[in-house]
């Protein structure tokens, strides 16, 4: 697998956001250690979402994005687990260092990604959620579809904005419909969405390409003080919320 050039070469932005949620400790230890998560959204919602941040981890633009998704389309209880024990990648580690960093810190199996996701799902379940979907940004979008490719996985849908590593091959085992919000920097995602639709899910995949947006604009590479990025970001919020509400409603959950 390879990253788009923009993922390797575009640094994070300076940004500010007053968080609407709070950090909590997951009830389940992961490999014997406590892990935290960022929880946001209406606490009486029965619809749960897992969000997987990009390699910059808890970035203000990403947290704003998650807060807004959690409040969209009637609201979701949303959990953003902390997958990186030592924090996200630094701008100094960009370029040739991105893939080695991901292999060391963001490997789906080696770094207990699925275990962390399931722990976050279980806490949402304890807090009253009866349906679950998962999405991520960049690397996180791949983690979402890998989680939704596991046997017995709990999700109704997966996907996310400006996905990294998305291909017909990487989504061949996904067990749910997918939402793909591509930027101008990703390859054509229409064949990928079509390959998932060929599985015959009741809900069709959703695909939209933001031709005026760069890779990472909803997360660590986004600057929502730029009106164009903010407008596209809010549209992505709306598309995600609508899609996840739709799959929950279709499942009567």
Automatic annotation (TrEMBL):
GO terms for molecular function: hydrolase activity. Residues 37-236 form the Dienelactone hydrolase domain. Gene3D superfamilies: alpha/beta hydrolase. Pfam families: DLH. This is Dienelactone hydrolase domain-containing protein. It comes from Podila minutissima.
């Amino acid at each position: 697998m390879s990253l788009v050039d923009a993922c390797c070469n575009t640094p994070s932005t300076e940004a500010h956001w007053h968080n609407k949620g709070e950090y909590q400790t997951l009830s389940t230890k992961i490999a014997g250690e406590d892990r935290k998560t960022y929880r946001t959204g209406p606490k009486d919602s029965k619809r749960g979402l897992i969000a997987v941040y990009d390699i910059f981890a808890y970035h203000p633009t990403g947290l704003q994005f998650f807060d807004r998704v959690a409040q969209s389309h009637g609201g979701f209880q949303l959990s953003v687990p902390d997958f990186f024990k030592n924090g996200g990648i630094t701008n100094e580690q960009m370029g040739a260092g991105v893939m080695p960093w991901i292999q060391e810190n963001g490997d789906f199996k080696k770094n207990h990604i699925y275990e962390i996701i399931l722990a976050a799902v279980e806490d949402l379940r304890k807090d009253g959620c009866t349906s679950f979907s998962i999405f991520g940004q960049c690397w996180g979008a791949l983690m979402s579809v890998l989680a939704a490719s596991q046997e017995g996985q709990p999700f109704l849908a997966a996907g996310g904005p400006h996905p990294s590593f998305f291909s017909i091959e990487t989504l061949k085992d996904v067990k749910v419909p997918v939402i793909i919000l591509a930027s101008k920097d990703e390859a054509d995602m229409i064949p990928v969405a079509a390959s998932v639709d060929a599985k015959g899910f009741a809900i069709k995949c959703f695909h939209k390409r933001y031709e005026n947006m760069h890779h990472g604009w909803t997360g660590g590479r986004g600057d929502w003080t730029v009106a164009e990025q903010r407008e596209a970001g809010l549209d992505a919020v709306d598309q995600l919320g609508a899609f996840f509400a739709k799959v929950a409603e279709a499942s009567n959950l």
